[in-house]
Design a protein that fits this description.
The chain is of the alpha/beta class and about 140 residues long. It has one domain: Immunoglobulin-like (Sandwich), CATH 2.60.40. It contains three helices and seven strands; from the N terminus they run H-E-E-E-E-E-E-E-H-H. A four-stranded mixed β-sheet has the order 2-7-6-4. The longest helix is centred in the N-terminal third of the chain and has 18 residues. The chain is globular, with a radius of gyration of 17 Å. The structure holds copper (II) ion. Copper (II) ion binds next to loops.
Length: about 140
């Protein structure tokens, strides 16, 4: 009986780590993120690669503003594991007003979309956000 429990718990632990994925997003030469809409599962990790200079990642919104990941340094590798579902919005601190934005949808959960849409942005950034939301919803 004890052996069965042991085997069963091992399967749960190993299957969880086997399915956790890592997605890589580059800073592009034309001031954007190579993947603007990332749809991932709970527990997945996103890595941002500083392939071009002058960019970073700063979160503007998510399920719980106080627990959002810290702003990354310019030109630095950055990695975040998303353990809670919902929509997350981030931008590049120097280029956010010009529309360098990214959306992360964790667990296909759009419950906080209204909060994300209510975040104050420049006019250009606002229209980029609307485009990204349409992309996110069209293949959900
Ligand atoms: Cu930038």
């Amino acid at each position: 009986m004890r052996l069965i429990i042991f085997v069963f718990s091992f399967i749960i632990i190993s299957s969880k780590s086997a399915f956790a994925e890592t997605i890589q997003i580059d800073f592009t030469a034309d001031d954007s993120y190579s993947i603007e809409v990332a749809k991932i599962d709970v527990g997945d990790t996103i890595e941002w690669l500083p392939k071009n200079e002058g960019h970073n990642v700063e979160f503007l919104g998510g399920p719980d503003f106080n627990s959002l990941p810290e702003k990354s340094d310019l030109n630095a590798f950055y990695s975040v594991t998303f353990n809670f579902p919902r929509v997350y919005l981030y931008h590049c601190t120097p280029h956010g007003n010009m529309g360098m934005l990214g959306l992360v949808i964790v667990g296909n959960d759009f419950h906080n979309l209204k909060d994300i849409e209510g975040i104050e942005l420049s006019r250009v950034a606002k229209s980029v956000l609307q485009r990204l939301i349409r992309i996110a919803q069209s293949n959900s």
